[in-house]
Amino acid sequence: MWAFGLKHPEDTLKVMDLRGKRVVVIGFGKSGQAATRLLLVKGAEVIVSESKGREDLPPSYLSSMEVQGVVFETGGHRPDTLKKADLIVTSPGVPKDVLLPALKEGIPLWGELELAFRLLRENERENIVAITGTNGKTTTTAMVSELLKLAGFKVFTGGNYGIPLSEYILSGIKVDKLVLEVSSFQLETVEEFSPKIGLLLNITPDHLDRYSSMNEYAYYKYRLFEKQGEKDFALLPLKEPYFETFKSLVKGRPFFFSEKREKGSSAFIEGDKAILLLQDEEVYSLRSFRLLGLHNRVNLLCALLACRLMGADRRACERLIEEFVGFPHRLEPVGTFGGVTFVNDSKATNVDATLQALRGLSPPIILILGGRHKGSTYSPLRHLIKEKVKTLILMGEARYTILEDLGELVETYVVEDLPQALTIALKVSVPGDVVLLSPACSSYDQFRDYQERGEVFRELVLKYAPKFYGETSEREIFH
Hints:
alpha/beta; Protein-Tyrosine Phosphatase, Chain A; 9-stranded mixed β-sheet; 18 helices; 20% strand
């Protein structure tokens, strides 16, 4: 197993005095920039190591950092520079071979998350909710943040969600609660990071182009709980497949959640109700909840449980259920035309996300799959495709790989791109159908990101669906 998270000698920056320390920041993206600024404020000597060329970095940021003494080494990472560092702060997802020289020398290696956590005040560390999982992190993070705000708390929301934790420290603001989305990449490089509430939503195949096995991937997810104390809370799925392997890492008090009432579960879904078993049984009606899919109900359940443990009142929970509208590109209803409903789930960039989408929608479904292959088999989709999908449309680089796994199950079309996929979907659709874009692949073969892919899908639907069905007005458009 990869040796991130090595424990270093006591003299390696256990006490956070960074004045005069030689710190190498690897990567100058959003987290690298925030870490650099924070290190400068703390008096460190900063060297930025960046694989991109100097011409590819923002000129204004370069000049402003250099004026403050930052040295930039661009066009590749130099092992000699890393070996001479007192501390290395790496961006998430930096190739492992880049970091090996420093690890072999025993140099402390942190991510921006670990750096910022060590610089928080004690009362701030005791008010962190951290959320990880293969799918649902962003939606659940938003739910937790919004619910705590509805309960009257002042909240910072960030981490992998968009704003690095370092930016919170630099801002000088003070909040009651910190809600952080945390990825496996970030958890590779934590040592002391310890949230009051750690929430693991799920673990399903993803990032197998980086990790040697699912066990390695799951190990980093479970590191969320590794430094918690007995007064902290660890929220996990009941019967989580990797729990027995990594339960020794779970140091906080465990609370388990599930999709139905089961022995050992403290939170579950029962019909149109979310039920929490805390001091008393708490029942919340889900009839007004707007998000599609059972998995979104489970995300909500987790948010309710986390926030109740963090001191939110029940009325705030009820208001969240009534008011939360979700995000674009996550089972987003685009509109209904000619009796056919179009759903944009472009955020489904792995197989499990598409599986969850299929579970949450009623048949018959016309499913658009494809993009850039991420290394996982598509076979887990087979049973739900047989059960719910009437037509499969495969696009992008992965189309023939998907065809090998799924092609014989239902009527299947193979096309090059999204416009062709929608054209086929329109032609084969009849009233009552659902046209679902849920690619199970990344978007990088043809799009900048999943947002652009979803926006293109939405634009194509709104432009062509009304005309195709002979409608003179765009009725039942949701966005």
